[in-house]
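Q: Hi! Curious about what Acetylornithine aminotransferase looks like structurally. Here's the sequence.
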Amino acid sequence: MRVETLELLKAHSNRSKARLSSLMNLPIEQSAKGAEIIDENGQAYLDFGGFGVFILGHRHPKVVAAVKAQVDCMPMSSRTLVNPVLASASKKLVDICPKTLDYAFFTNSGAESTELALKLARANGCEHIIAVTGSYHGKSLGALSVTHRDEFRAPFMPLFSNVEFVERDNLSALEAAFKKCGGKVAFIAEPVQGEGGVYTLDYEFLHKAKSLCTQSKGIFICDEIQSGLARTGSMWAIDKFGITPDVMLVGKGLSGGVVPCAAVVATEAAFAPLNQDFMLHSSTFGGSPIALAAAEATIDVLLNDQVSARAKVLGERIAARLNQIATTYNQSHQDQICIRAEGLLIGIDVQTPSRAGQLTLSLLSQHVLTSHSLSNASTVRLTPCAFLSEQQLAHLYDAFANALDKI
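A: Let's find out. The predicted structure is below.
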């Protein structure tokens, strides 16, 4: 089955991806439940990857049940008649968002959410956009224009010409960029850069950006696609900064890892162009009843099971133990491996891309899945679910200690 599957992928899906899968000897995934994925041979893999999607694990029963019930009722909307699930899901989402974010627009992916946020910025008169080095906001053309890594941008140039990148946490560069742009400015940033290698932006830097946006009568866009929905130990990473954005991007864990679902939430002022004319932006599949049913059930689980608190405590435990292992290794090997973490968004910085690849392969051979960092190839990321057993944690720690000796 494996050879046949890879040949089909090579011939009809993507040649380079099939080639990499073959070189890495990646197994064929068959099923998943909780924190584990099972391959075609029945081997279980501890899923610490998933790029932030599976905060509730795989196939959470309450989310699956909600989706099944909606499929039996009405899986897709007519797009003409009134969709009651859209009404209830919109309220449920904005109710857990920072105050004054009163309107929600559901999309299919984080990149789609970024595109809508940029459109809202433009519709509100922002002619210039300021983004941050190390950022990642997606790979569609607009999102790519505010994503920093050159390797992703170069083949598709020219991108948006009105984007300025400022060095992460550099206050003078930030002020200079706003001054250079003039007029209304949109600022976009992730409070915690996930694909950037798990870097938390500086408190003063984000507050200065918010202040400068207010002064310019611009738009502060907060990308919580990966850092939001309990992942970093609070419902939203921006909560720790005491900042209310004008527009916030939501994704990854919004549907509990069951069906694609993302969203944009915004203040009434920022959302005004769409309130005046809903036809300015639309999506055939965005806000489908099955996606919204998953989102509603996911939000219920996040609240009822206090997942933010679980993520905070569990993330601190994991980071502390990984730090102990890394420190012991650094002392004996005169190395500089370091751990950066915010809740269950954890980065293992091994200094070079080649070593990150070796660490990934070594953990895979011990049946631990990880995520690479799209904007920082030297960092391997762990984005596990908030429901891990002591046995699964022990497996991770043993695998990490063994893997370090092979990089």
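A: A fun detail: The radius of gyration is 21 Å.
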